[in-house]
Amino acid sequence: MDKVVYYMRVLIIGGVAAGTKVAAKLKRENYSCDVTILSKSKEISYAGCGLPYYVGNVISDRSQLIVNTPESFSALTGVSVLTEVEVTKVNPAEKTVDAVSLKTKEPLKYEYDKLVIASGAEAIKPGIDGVNLKNVFVMRTPDDADALRSTVESGEIKRAVIVGGGYHSRQQSTLSHILSTFY
Question: Catalytic residue numbers?
Answer without folding.
Answer: 49
